[in-house]
Amino acid sequence: MEKRPRALVTGITGFVGSHLAELLLEEGLAVYGLVQVRSSMENIATIKDRLSLVEGDLADAHSLRRVVAAIEPDYVFHLGAQSYVPASWSSPAGTMEANLIGSLNLFEAVRQAGITPPIQIAGSSEEYGLVERDELPITELTPLKPLSPYAVSKVAMDYLGYQYYRSYGLPIFRTRAFNHTGPRRGEVFAESNFAKQVAEIEAGLKPPVISVGNLDAERDYTDARDIVRGYWLAVHTAEPGEAYNLCSGHALSMRSVLDSLLAMSNVKVEVQVDPERLRPSDVPVLLGDASKFHKATGWQPEISFEKTLADLLDYWRVKVGAPQRTNLRLVA
Predict the structure, then answer these.
(1) pTM
(2) Whole-number mean pLDDT of the chain?
């Protein structure tokens, strides 16, 4: 019997990681996920019996060497990170350790194992930072001017991936996804938090008041299920060492995102700005150009943003009605 290709996914229990795991299973891969004992398994509860979960920590170089040597993966998808921009302001050192040192430990583990699997690393549009409107849309040649500790950590990871490709020949694919969302998106992120608040108001769990941050910020949104399909295509048809934007090419204000969610509900609400939701510095607009990635892989978004928001709102409607948490046995 032919052996199935093995994929190692860091951050598998996260929002994007769970969607990627589903896709990889559909593609027939044996999927290994790096987890910690304290990891919540809720996002992967429905596929838990089809995964092999291994304990390890991106901050622990020894554990990564052990995991990589044992699995000898045919593909590595590196999604594990501290991914919440506001949290990077309160914990800049922790963010840098998770996102840069964790990546360094992973690259070293692969190199020391003597294997060369394609490695996809999840960069971010936040790397571009302060972009003036006359510089739009953002291409891979747009200067990187990060505006948060999170963005700086992602720039560092991005360039570290380039250095390991050039220095050691590791086939590292540098993807820079713009905003992406959908069901299972964490509640700390703006559009998901809006959807949760709408669902709670519908269920009578909170007063008809929605707390918001900067509604004037404009973001380029893509469905996470389209993004992970891009990650899969990247390791097959893109060029290692190159950076690629993944985005829709359309910018939406956060105000319009909120309005779209409210249009999917019959609730009447008051909108209030919460100063705690405002950042010390914010990127005014992120609008990307994915033509380079499209040319390399043929990828383009297929899921409409209306469906993305509808699925996100339905996810929260179910969740606030019957919150669940699933424990999953770890496989050594």
Answers:
(1) 0.93
(2) 93
Q: Does residue 43 fall inside a structural domain? A: yes
- Please tell me the predicted confidence (pLDDT) of residue 323: 37
Average pLDDT over residues 297-313: 98
First to last CA, the chain: 24
Q: How many structural domains are present in the chain? A: 1
Which residue carries 């150009």 as its tokens? 289
pLDDT at 325: 37
The candidate with the shortest Cα–Cα distance to 320, out of 180, 223, 181, 206, is 206
Would 231 be classed as within a structural domain? Answer: yes
Rounded Cα–Cα distance for residues 58 and 67 (Å): 11
Q: Give yes or no for a contact between 149 and 88, defined as CB atoms under 8 angstroms apart.
A: yes
CATH code of 153's domain: 3.40.50.720
Q: Let me know if residue 102 belongs to a domain.
A: yes
Rounded distance between C-alpha atoms, residue 50 and residue 31, angstroms: 8
Per-residue pLDDT at 59: 94
- Please report where in the chains the tokens 């490695």 appear, as a residue: 119
Total number of residues shown for the chain: 332
Structural domain including 244 reads 6-183+222-249+286-303
- Provide the token pair at 294: 């499209």
Residue 281 lies in a domain: no
The region of weakest confidence among 34-48, 87-101, 178-192, 279-293 is: 279-293
Instruction: Give me 94's structure tokens.
Output: 């922790």
| Contact by Cβ (8 Å): 113, 44 | no
Q: What share of residues in the chain are helix, strand, coil (percent, to 5)?
A: 45, 15, 35
| Euclidean distance between CA atoms 103 and 79, whole angstroms | 10
Q: How far is CA 259 from CA 26, 115, 191, 215, 317, in A?
A: 35, 49, 11, 11, 17
**Predicted pLDDT at 279:** 60
